[in-house]
Amino acid sequence: MWIPTEHEKYGVVLVSFRGTVQHGLPLEIGDTVQILEKCEGWYRGFILKNPNVKGIFPSCYIHLKNAHVKNKGQFETVIPVEDSVITEMTSTLRDWGAMWKQLYVKNEGDLFHRLWHVMNEILDLRRQVLVGHLTHDRMRDVKQHITARLDWGNEQLGLDLVPRREFSMVDPDEISVTELYKLMEHRHRKKETAAPASTHHLFVHVKSLMSANLGEELEVFFHIYDGRENRPLSERFFVRLNKSGLPKSPEKTERQCTLFVDLGSSDLRKDVYIVVHFIRIGRMGAGEKKNLCSVQYRRPFGCAVVSIADLLTADSKDDHLLKVYACNTESEWHQIHENIIKKANSRYNLSGSNTGLAVALQLLHGDIEQLRREYMVLFTRGVSITRKLGFSDIIMPGEMRNDLYITLEKGEFEKGGKSVARNVEITVYVLDIDGQILKSHVAAGSGEPGGDEYHSLVLYHNNSPRWAEQIKLPIPVDMFRGSHVRFEFRHCSTKDKGEKKLFGYSFVPLMQEDGRTLPDGTHELIIHKCEENTSLADCSRYLKLPFTKANLPSNNQTLKGTKESFWITSFLCSTKLTQNGDMLDLLKWRAHPERINDSLSKLKEIDGSEIVKFLQDTLDTLFGILDESSQRYGLKVFDSLVHIINLLQDSKFQHFKPVMDTYIESHFAGALSYRDLIKVLKWYVDRIVDAEHQEHIQQVLKASEYIFKYIIQSRRLFSLATGGQNEEEFRVCIHELFMSIRFFLSQENKGTSPVAQTQAVFLRTFPAIYSELLKIFTIREVAGFVRETLGSLPAAIHADCPLEAVKLQCIAKTVESQLYINPESRCILLPVVLRVLQAHMQEQRDLVMCARILTSMLSLLKKEENGTTEPVVSEEVELIVESLLGVLLRTILEISNRPQPAGPAMRLQFQDVTTCQGEFVACLLALLRQMSDRHYQQLLQAFSSKDDLRDYLLHIFTVFRILIRPEMFPKDWTVMRLVTNNVIITTVLYLSDALRKNFLNDKFDYKVWDSYFYLSVIFINQPCLQLESFSPSKRKKILEKYGDMRVMMGCEIFSMWQNLGEHKLNFIPAMIGPFLEVTLVPQPDLRNVMIPIFHDMMDWEQRRSGNFKQVEAKLIDKLDSLMSEGKGDETYRELFNSIIPLFGPYPSLLKKIERETWRESGISLIATVTRLMERLLDYRDCMKLGEVDGKKIGCTVSLLNFYKTELNKEEMYIRYIHKLYDLHLKAQNYTEASYTLLLYDELLEWSDRPLREFLNYPMQSEWQRKEYLHLTIVQNFDRGKCWENGIILCRELADQYESYYDYRNLSKMRMMEASLYDKIMDQQRLEPEFFRVGFYGKKFPFFLRNKEFVCRGHDYERLEAFQQRMLNEFPHAIAMQHVNQPDQTIYQADAQYLQIYAVTPIPESQDVLQRDGVPDNIKSFYKFNHIWRFRYDRPFHKGTKDKENEFKSLWVERTTLTLVQSLPGISRWFEVEKRELVEVSPLENAIEVIENKNLQLRTLITQCQSRQMQNINPLTMCLNGVIDAAVNGGLARYQEAFFVKDYMMNHPEDGEKIGRLRELMFEQAHILEYGLAVHEKFVPQDMRPLHKKLVDQFHLMKSSLGIQEFPAYVRASPVHFTNGSPRTCRNSVPSIISPDGGRTVSRRSYPAVNRYSSSSLSSQASNEVSNITGQSESSDEVFNMQPSPSTSSLSSNHSASPNVTSSAPSSARGSPQMAEKHKHSRENACLSPRERPVSAIFPNPLDPAQRAPTHQIGDTTLPRSDPNLSAPDKVRPTPSSWSLDSVKERAPSFSDSVGKLLCPPVPPRPPYSAGSSAKNMRSQSPVPSSRSPQKTTVPPFTPSPTECQSTSLVSNSPVLSGSYSSGISSLSRCSVSEASGTELPAGDHPPHPLPPPPPSSSSSTLPNSVSSGSDEPVRRENKTPPPYSVYERNNPRRPVPLPHSLSIPPQADPPALPPKPHQLRTGSMKLDGSADPRVPRPRPLPRKVSQL
Q1: I want to staple 1676 with a disulfide (CB 3.0 to 4.6 A). Which of 934, 1222, 1663, 1978 is the partner?
Q2: DSSP readout, 1340-1385?
Q3: Could you tell me which of 962, 934, 936, 968 has the C-alpha nearest to residue 949?
Q4: Which letter does DSSP use for residue 1751 in this model?
Q5: Closest C-alpha among 1501, 1562, 1494 to residue 1875
Q6: Distance, CA of 1362 to chain centre
Q7: Other CB atoms closer than 10 Å to residue 193's CB: what's the count?
Q8: Whole-number Å distance between alpha carbons of 986 and 1008
Q9: C-alpha angle with apex 1834: 1832 to 1835, nearest 5 degrees?
Q10: What is the C-alpha separation between 1338 and 1399, in angstroms, rounded?
Q11: In angstroms, rounded to a whole number, what is the distance separating the alpha carbons of residues 568 and 470?
C-alpha cells in the first residue's frame, strides 16, 4: 500500500523511464522529482518542471538528495539542501539552454559560441564543486569564477542581476531592503565601471630589429623618460640582439619581455616617453674591414622614442614598429632622445630608410597581484620586472629593496701627448671591504643577469665624452659598509692591435664612516693617473686618496688644479639604508643624550620615506625617551608622535598603519605612557578656545585615534602589570578629558573661525575612538560619552556652516560603528541621530550623507522568521516613522522633480543626489516593510486634520508612482522591483481603508481617489509584473514568492470602485483610458475583474446623459493609442464581446424602453469596438519589425477607412493618413503617397482660418498648409511619373497665386507646370501589370480574409515575380492552381490560400485614346490610370466537342471585376466590389479574332506606307503568318464550323453574324492583297524569294476560299485607313482583342509538333482547341478564338512557377489525340506560363454594365453593338507575364503620329453591311500596345530593361524566329488595343449620315450574357468616389477640341482628314472619363477639418 514518504522527498533521475506501466510517469535523465508516496520499490510523485502531472516510477531509478520541506502536507514545497551556488548554477544553465538555442535561430553566432564555451566551463566547475575535494581557498576561487561567469552570461542574455553575498544568492525577504539595494548597487557599479586603477604597468616584448645593413650584434636599452623634467623615471631594460636583429636567447622569454612596474597615474601623460637606445658591439667604425682588429667595442647605433600617451589609444594587440634614428655627431649621443622629442631634425637622421624595431607594447592596470591573477600566462612564461627609479606612489611595508643606480655622466680628459683626442672606455667594478670584486653585482639593466664588470660606450676621438649610461648595483645591505666602486679609464687604439691602454682610474666609497650612504646627486670624481701596466688589485693603496673634488682639503692644489675630471650621478633606492644623519642621530639617542632635543626637533624635517623605513625603531626611541624623561621631553615626544601618526595619513604611507597597529598590539611596552599622553592631550584641548593659532592643535586632534590607542593599550598593560590599580584615577582622567572636549565643542562660532575648524577636525576622528573606549568601558558608558559629546554641539548653527556637514559625517560613522549595532546602546544614541537627521532632511542639505545614515540605520531592523517584530525594534520603527517618514516622502518627491542642471560641476552634484534617491527609496521601502498594523494605525491617527491626511496620502501615492517608473532602477533589477511592488501593494491595502473611511460620501475628495486609481493602473501595467513575458522558471519563482500582484491590485480597484456609489460619475470618462489599459493585460482573472467596471461606467453614464457617447469616444481613442503600443491580443477582443450578455434586463435601473435602448446601443458600441480591435490588432501585428511594406500599407488603409466611414474620427483619420503617407514614401510608392496626402489636402480649404500645431506641421493658416500640401503632392506625383495629376494641382495653385497677385510664385508655378508637360512628352513611362489576388482562409489578417483584390504591380514585375513576392509576404500561404472561385471549405479553412492571376484593365477615358494625333506618351497615362474595372477571359467547351473542328463548341467566359476605388489610389491594391460574368459564343469569338487580325494588318500596312518602320520584317512576318495559316486550312475551319447548313439551321439568329464573318474573311483577303502590294514596294532584295512565295500562297488561299474576284461590294469599298489605321468593330458583339497582340509560335521550339499540311484540318482543329484551353501548343493558333492560354507557348523567357505544373506534358502538346484528355481544362486552367488563364492573354471582356440600350446615343435608328464599349475594352492587351510580351518585344505596333498620315488608295470597300454596328463609333486612333510583338521603327515607349531590343517582330527571339505560321489567329489579338471605337456623346452626330442597318441587327447584347449590366450606370451614379480622387475638381472648364467623326469617302484615294468637331473639356483632370458621359460621378463636399 502507498505510504506518504517521510525523508525521501527529493531526487534526481539516473535512468530514463518511459512510463509504460499504468499511471507511469515518463522521466528523462537529469529530471528532478518530488516524491509524495512509496510502495514496494516504487515512488509516486511529479517532476518539478511540471507539478500538475503525477505518476509512479521505480525507486531504483532515483538518486535521493537531502531536502528541506516547507508547508508539510498537501501543498508542501521541497528545497534541496545543497550549496546555493550549485542550485543557482543548475537553474541558470536550464534557462540559458533554451535561450542558447534561440541565439542559433536568430543567427547570433558569436554570442552562441561564447555562451557555449562558458556553459561548458560552468559545468566543469560544477563538477569540481560537487565532487567536494577542493581546498577551502580553491573552493572560494572556483565559486568566484562560477559567479563571475553566471553574471556575464546573465548580462549578455539580458537576464536579471542576481544579488549575492559571498557568492550565494540572497533571499530578499531575509535581508533589509536597504541591504538589498546596497548589494544591487555594488554589483551594478562593479559591472558598470571598474574603479580606475591607481597603478599602471607597461608590458614590453621585443620582437626584432629590421635593418638592411646589420652585421653586428646589438644591445637594446629601454627606459621610461620624463620629457618635462628631462630625467629617466625607470631603470633600464636590456636586451641582446644577434646579427640578424633577433633576440639572442629566444627560449628565455624573460630576456625579451619586461614589465615596467608601478607607474603612477601622473606618469600616463603625453610628455612621458619610452626611449630605446641601440648600441652595436663591434669595430670602432661601422664600415671598417673585418681583419683590422678583433677587439669589440660598444659603439652608438641609434635611438627610438614613443610617447606613452599613444599606447592609451592604440590597439594593444598590434605590434609597434619604432623608427630608429642616428645622431649626426657622436658628441650629441647623450641627448639624442631629447633631440628626437623636441624634433630638432638637424641633429639626427633616420639610421636607414627601412630600419625599425618591432615591439609589442601594452599598458596594464591594477596592482601587481591583480596582474598575476589576470595575466597568469605572462608570469608563468617568464617576464623580467623593471622597477621605477625610487619608490612607487604607495610604499608597502615589508617591501625589500636595496638598489644603487650610478649614471656615467661625462668626463674631461687631456690629450696625453696624442695628436688626436682619445677614444675613452670606462670599466666599472664593485669591490667589497676586502678589495675583492663582487661577482654579478654590476647590471646594465633588468632582463640580463648582472656581470662582474661593465664596459661603457666608446665615443670616437672625444676628450670630453658624455655617456649618460645608467648602471644598477644591486648590492646586499650587509655588504654596503666598506664597499666601493672603481672606474678604470682606457684609451682604445684603432690601430692594428686595437689594444686598450689604462691611463687612469676613479673610485667612490658607498658608505661613510658614520653609517650614512653615498648621498644622492652628481659627484665630480678625481681621475688618478696611472701607468698602463699598473696593478690596482691592492685597493688599500688608493682608498686613502681623496675621491671627489668636493671634499678635497684646501691645501691640495695639485689635484684641485687638474683639468681631468669624471662626473657620476648616484641614486639610492633602499628600504634599509639611510642617507640622513638626523635620523641616525635620533636612533642613537642614548649615545648622545645631549642631542635628544635637537633630534626631536629635526624629526619633522626628515623625509617621510626615511621615517617609515625605521618606524618601529623610531617609535621605540620616542617611548624610551618618554619613559626616561617624561617631564623634560613629554611635550616634544608627544608632538613627534603626532607627526608620525599624521604622516601615516598620507596616501603614500597609509599602508604602514597596520605596521603601527601591530606595533601597538605586540611591541609597545610603555605601561606608564597613558598618564603623560592624557595629560598633554588635555592640556592641548584646554588651550583650544584661547589659542590664536589652531594649526598645531588641529594636527594633535587629527592624531587622536592613535593617541587613544596608545592611551588604552598603555592602561591595559599597566592593569595587567599591577592587577588593575589606579582604575578610578584613570576613569576620572578620561571623564575630565571628555568634559574638556564637550566644553570646546559647545562653543558657538562662525563657520569659518579657527575654533569651528578645530571642532570639525575632532568630529572627523571622534568615531574612531569608540572601539578603543569599548576595550575598557561598558557599552552603555561609551554610548553615554558619545551621546553627551554629540549632544554638546550647538544646535542653531547656520545652514551653510561647514561644521554641519562634518557633524553629519560623524553621525554616519557613529551609526556604522560597532557601538550602534548593539541594541543596548542603540536606544541611547537613536534620539540624537534622529534629531540631526531630521534637521538636515527638512532643509534638504547633505542628502547624500543623510541617505547613507538612514540606510545604515534601517539595515539593522529585521523582522523575525514568523513576521513579528521584536519590541525593541518595534519601538525604534515607531520613533523613525514619527520623525522621518513624512520628511522622507517629501525628500524623494523633491529629488525626483529637480530639473537637471547645465554646468558640468553642477551635473556631477546632481548625479550624486539622484544616486542617493535610490538609497532614500530603499529606506522608505525598508521602513514601510517594517511597519505593522499598529504602526499604520498610529500614523493615521497622528494627523490632526483631514487636510493633513489628504496631503499625506497624495504624497505617498505620488511617491509610489515615482517608484514604479521604469527609470527608477536599472532594467535588470527585477528582484528590487518585485520587493518594491510587494511593499507598495501592502501599503496600499492599509491606506485604502483610510481612503474609504475618510474620503467617501459627503467627505468625498476627487483628487485623492483619482491619485489612488491612477497609481493602481500604472502598478498593474508595469513591465516587471507582466509574468507572461518571463520564462516559465522565473514566472514560477515569482508566483511562489509574491503571487500575481496584478490580480490583487485589480481586485482592490474593483472593491474601491464598488464603494464609490454615485461618485463614479466623477471618473467617467476620465478613468476609461486607464482602466482599459488594465484590461489589455493578458491575465484572465484580472480581465474578469475589470471588464464589469466598463459595464458599470456605461450604466452610470446612461443614467446621467441618456447615452454613453463620452464612454465610446474615450474608449476608441485609448484603444488606438494602446494597440499601437503593442498591447492587447485576440482573446481580449473575445472577452470584450462578453460584455454584451451583461446588458441583461435591469428592471430596477431603468424603464423597459430605456433598457432596450440602452441594450441596443451597448451592443452596437461593443460591436464597433470589436471591429476596431480587429483592425487595430492587424495593424499592430503588421507594424512589427520585419513585416513587408505591402501588408503594412494594406492594413493602414483598412484602419484609415474605418475611422473615416464608421467612426467619423477626423483627427485619427488624419493621423493614419500621415502614417500611410510615410509608409508609401518608404516603399517609394510616390504616386500612392500623393493620393494619400491628397486625402488631407481635400479636407482643407483656401481660407485664412488659423490651424494649430499638429503632427509635423507648424502653427499656420489653412491656406498655407494647403499650399504646402499641394507642393508636396506635386513633387510626389512628379517622382511617381504621374505628371498629369500634378498639372491639375499646379493649375489650382496658379489660380490661387493669381487671385492674390502673387506673380513671383505664379511664374514659378507656371514653369513647374510647363516642366511637367515636357516630362510627359520627353520621358518614358513603364506600363504596369495588374493582378487579381484572392486571400482565402481564416489565417489571413482580418483586412484580407476571404476577399479578393486587384493589385498594381511594380515596374517590370511580371506574374511569376508577383506571385513569388506574395508568397514571400505570406510564407505560410498555399498557391491555388486553378482560377475557379473557391468553395466554403477553403473560406473556412484554418490556413492561407492565395489565388493569383493577371487581369487586363478597362480604361474609363476613351476621349483621349480615340483622338487622332495624340502621342502615345500621352495616351499611355490614360490607359493605366483611374481604372475601376478589369477583365479576365477563360475558354471552355460547351456541349459536345467536335474532335474534327473544336471551334464549334469553344466559348469564352469573361469575368469583369469592379473595384471599390480606382487604381492607382491610396494603395497599390483595392478590394473587388463586384464580379460579373458573360459568355462569348464561338461565332462571336471567331468574328473578334478575324476583326483584330484585320486591324493589325491595316496598322502594319499603314506604318509601312508612312515610313514609320525602319524595318519591314514585322509586316513580312504578319503577312506570312496569316497567308500560311489560311493556305493550310485556317479560315476553312471557320467555314466548316459556321457556314454549314446544320449550323445555320440550328442558329437562325446568327445569320447576320455569319454574314459578318464571311465579310471579314473577304475583307482579310482584300487587305492581304493590298498588303502584298505595299510589301512588294518596300521589300529588300534578299527577301524577294519570300515575297514571291507569299504571293503564290495568297493565290492558293484565295482559291481555297473560293474567291476568283472580290465581290463588287468589296471592290467598291476602299480599304480606308481613316486615321492611319484600319477600322474594325463592325459586329454586334463586343470586340475582344488579344492582349498578346500578334501571337506567333515557332515551329522550332516544339520539335514534336508536325508541320501542317493543307489537309491536316482535323489535327489543326484539335490542336487549336488544345491551345485555347492551355494544353497544346500547335500552330493552330491560327484561329486563336480568344486569347487562349496557349499564348504561354511563346513566353519563352518566363518559365512556369515551380509550384504550378502543366496539365499536359510538352511532348504531348499538339497531338490531335490529346483533345479528350483536356475535357476538364476549365477546372485546370493554370496560373503558370504554360497553362495560364485566358485573361492573361485576352484583353478584359466588355463590362456588361456598359451595354446600354441602343436608343440612348447618337442616331436612334441605328442599332449599336455596344454603345458604351470603349476601345480599350476590345483591344487592351493583358498585363500578364505570360502573354507574348514575354518575348520582351514591347514596341508599339502603331505609329505615334498616325493621325498625320495619308493612306494610299486601296481597293474600294462596300458601305457597311446590315450587321455593321460601328457607324456611330469615333474614328479609331491606333495606339501602340505594350504587349504587341511587332516592333516598329518608331520607339514611343521605353521597353523594359529585360526586353530584347529587336527591330523586327521576332528576329532576336529563338521562339519566334520562324515564319508566322499561325495564320490569321496567330496575330488575332494584335495590339490594336485602342483602335476600336466608342460612342459619341449624345447629340454629337457624325457629319455624314450613314444608311440605317436592317432592323434585324437591333440586338446589341450578348446572347449568352450571364449577368446583365444594366444597373451599372446607376451604381456608378450612387457610388461616392473616394475623397482623394484628383479627377473630380470643380475647376473652371476649358474648351477642348472634339474628336473627328468617322467618315468613309467614296473616292479611291483618301483625301486629307476632315477637321474633327470639338468637345468641351473640363479643367479638372478627367482621368476617370466615365464611359458614359451622361452619368457624372458626384463628388462629396469636402468635410471641414477641425483646427488641425
Answers
A1: 1663
A2: S-TTTTTEEEEEEPPTT--HHHHHHHHHHHSTT-EE-S--SPP-HH
A3: 936
A4: G
A5: 1494
A6: 31
A7: 8
A8: 18
A9: 100
A10: 25
A11: 9
Distance (Å, whole) CA 123 – CA 136: 20
- Phi/psi of residue 488, nearest 5 degrees: -105, 135
For residues 1967 and 793, give the distance between their C-alpha atoms in angstroms, rounded to a whole number: 94
71-77 contact pairs (CB < 8 A, 24+): 77/1040
Q: Are 1480 and 1632 in contact (CB under 8 A)?
A: yes
Distances (CA, A) of 187 to 183, 193, 1769: 6, 10, 77
- Cell numbers 682588429 correspond to 293
Beta strands in 1-120 (DSSP E): 3-4, 10-13, 32-39, 42-47, 50-58, 62-64, 67-70, 77-80
Question: How far is residue 1473 from each of residues 1352, 1461, 1477, 1500, 1913, measured CA to CA in Å?
Answer: 16, 9, 14, 39, 15
CA distance 269 to 307: 8
DSSP state at residue 883: I
Distance CA 1657, CA 1525 (A): 11
Sign of the torsion formed by the C-alpha atoms of 1920, 1926, 1931 and 1933: negative
Bridge partners, 402 (sequence order): 574
For 839, half-sphere exposure in the C-beta direction (CA atoms, 13 angstrom radius) is 15
Cell reading at 653: 604611507
Distances (CA, A) of 427 to 70, 134, 487, 572, 648: 84, 56, 6, 21, 43
Strands 272-282, 297-307: parallel, antiparallel or unpaired by DSSP? antiparallel
What is the rounded CA–CA span in Å between residue 1773 and residue 1736? 9
Task: Name the strand (E) or helix (H) holding 1276.
Answer: helix 1262-1279
Contact 1806/1608 with Cβ under 8 angstroms?
yes
- What cell does 1477 get? 460574368
Q: CA nearest 1219: which of 1242, 1202, 1243, 1195?
A: 1195
Mean pLDDT, consecutive 10-residue segments, the chain of 1988 residues? 86 91 91 90 89 91 86 74 80 86 86 90 87 81 86 87 81 84 76 64 88 83 91 92 87 84 81 92 73 76 89 70 89 90 87 82 82 76 84 65 89 80 90 87 88 91 90 86 90 76 89 80 89 80 83 65 84 74 67 69 72 75 74 77 82 76 81 82 83 81 86 86 82 87 80 77 86 85 86 68 80 86 84 85 81 84 58 81 84 79 51 70 87 86 86 90 86 88 91 86 86 92 87 84 90 90 85 82 82 79 76 73 60 52 35 48 68 70 62 74 76 85 89 93 92 90 94 94 94 94 94 94 90 93 87 90 90 90 91 94 82 77 90 87 80 92 89 92 88 84 75 88 72 82 86 89 90 90 90 85 58 42 36 36 34 34 36 35 34 36 35 38 37 38 39 36 38 36 36 36 39 38 38 37 36 34 34 37 40 38 38 39 41 38 36 36 38 41 40
Rounded Cα distance, 1109 and 1115, in Å = 10
Burial 1667-1705 (b: 16+ CB within 10 A, else e): bbbbbbbbbbbbbbbbbbbbbbbbbbbbebbeebebbbe
DSSP per position, 975-1001 = HHHHHHHHHHHHHHHHHHHHHHHHSSG
Which triple of cell numbers denotes residue 814? Answer: 557613529
d(CA 244, CA 247) in angstroms, rounded, equals 9
Residue at 1447: amino acid letter: F
Give the three-state DSSP class for 490.
Answer: strand
Closest to 1663 in 3D by CA, of 1678, 1648, 1653, 1673:
1673
CA 742 to chain centre: 63
Residue 196 preceded by cis peptide, ω within 30: no
Cα–Cα separations (whole angstroms), residue 913 to 197, 804, 909, 910, 926: 25, 18, 6, 5, 20
In this structure, the number of other CB atoms found within 10 A of the CB of residue 1837 comes to 21
